[in-house]
Amino acid sequence: MRGTGGKTVRRSSNFPKISYPTFMDGIISGAYIFMALAVLENVTSHVLRTRHMGKQALRLDRLSRWLFPIAYLTSWIVMTLVFM
């Protein structure tokens, strides 16, 4: 990375090494988890539809519309309480 004055600055040397998880670690981990769950829900819904189980797929989709936002908001609240 180029810093001011044309000097090369290594970003990793500017930050202290810490051995405990931070709030940002929780955010990034939570984002990966929710992305994986969303992909899993989409694949499951697709498999149910291809097996002519459309009612179950529709039920899963409707449940996910409410469950994902509630779980995401709850995880943010828990992370805020734990890390702050």
Explained architecture:
This protein is mainly alpha-helical. The protein has 3 helices and no strands. α2 runs antiparallel to α3. It has one domain.
Briefly summarize what is shown.
This protein has 84 residues and is mainly alpha-helical.
Secondary structure: elements and pairs:
Layout: H1 11-14, H2 23-50, H3 54-83
Helix pairs in contact: 2-3
Q: State mean pLDDT (0 to 100 scale).
A: 88
The number of strands is 0
Give the radius of gyration: 20 Å
- Helix-strand string: HHH
Distance between the termini: 31 Å
Query: How many helical elements?
Result: 3
Structural domain count: 1
> Helix proportion of residues, in percent?
over 70%
Which word captures the global form? Answer: elongated
Q: pLDDT below 50 for ≥5 consecutive residues: which ranges?
A: none
* Structural class determined from secondary elements: mainly alpha
Largest sheet: none
Query: Beta-strand percentage?
Result: under 5%
Search tags:
single chain, 84 residues, mainly alpha, elongated
